[in-house]
Amino acid sequence: xxxxxxxSTKRFGQEDYYKKRDDDxxxxxxxxxxxxxxxxxxxxxxxxxxxxxxxxxxxHNRLTHSLEVSSVGRSLGVNVAxxxxxxxxxxxxxxxIGSIVSAACLAHDLGNPPFGHSGEKAIATYFSEGNGMxxxxxxxxxxxxxxxxxxxxANALRLxxxxxxGRRPGGFVLTYSTLASxxxxxxxxxxxDPKKQKFGFFDSExxxxxxxxxxxxxxxxxxxxxxxxxxxxxxxxxxxxxxxYQIMDIEDAHKLKILTSEEVKSLFLGFFSPExxxxxxxxxxxxxxxxxxxxxxxxxxxxxLIDECSVVFAENxxxxxxxxxxxxxxxxxxxxxxxxxxxxxxTAVAKIYRSxxxxxxxxxGYKIILTLLEHLVVAVLSPEKAYSKQLLMRIPxxxxxxxxxxxxxxxxxxxxxxxxxxxxxxxxYRKITGMSIPTL
Length: 440
Description:
Number of helices: 20
Number of domains: 3
Oligomer: single chain
Structural class: mainly alpha
Number of strands: 0
């Protein structure tokens, strides 16, 4: 891979359309603006990140998480461009790496359904364990694997590129480079790791991703010809996400009193050498507000991780470009920082992700999503029934419920459900089950 081809302003769906611009925004900044003003991005404000919403203490939702990831991603991109500019001085748009990564970070969670990862699990298990199992014979192997391993990452690319009813070709019509930077797992569901079940695009978007990869010169993986290599900037998007969710979940847990102040201070100070700890303590103790002390340490940790991940990327540029770098940037951090990161991860698994607050919202979300699927799948497959007709009238026309294949109909249902906010899903669940009746 080479930077000249990887950084492209060509727009998906408008490949042959060019227009002279009258302002100074770059095409990648336009991607950012297009995403941040979109309805799917706005809806992230009412999608669970980890903790229940909204609560008396405001913690992160998908929207604030995405904004913070975008901020960290921009810093990573700017740092990398600065470190590598002497090596790629003739490359157009090299100074725009920060803008590309920032836009891709905004989009990275757009495909996630309501209620966090429990929403993904509920969709997958409805088809792999529930009544949806009966549909297996109606689909190809690739189509079936898509839905029994439903993946928010793949759904993000579908949302960004799919032409929904009444919408323009190309979906969001983003640049090829921004789209490629979103695809963390550049392979189809049938080639995913059986243990992790992660993949980057559905069978319905396979041709679209191949088109993007060919345009940008992204080859098949040297180790697995059934997979593509990652676009290099994916590593920066992934690092920004890793940094934010791990560190911000710890801070949120402190605000919710799941972790004590001393626990959090110890975790954050663990990232620094003894000399740096003394300086951090001195600065931290300039204020007496504990939340401000935690916020200062959090910002210091994020700043250090940005610098260290930028160094890792620059040092491994050659292997990243030839597709042989098979690690996250976080895993290649200096030993001291990596051990501190793992300590945060262990604490999060033990005390945060298994806390009653988190488990309760996951259990509720699981039930809500399963119930919606039960009703909506029957409706799209049996549209002639009286109840189905009423229920289908609730689904916006942009979703292709009358698609010619079973796979297409199911994907329309998943498009509808995954686009819901937590509140919308709960409200529809209550109405479908008769728990809530509108007042006239």
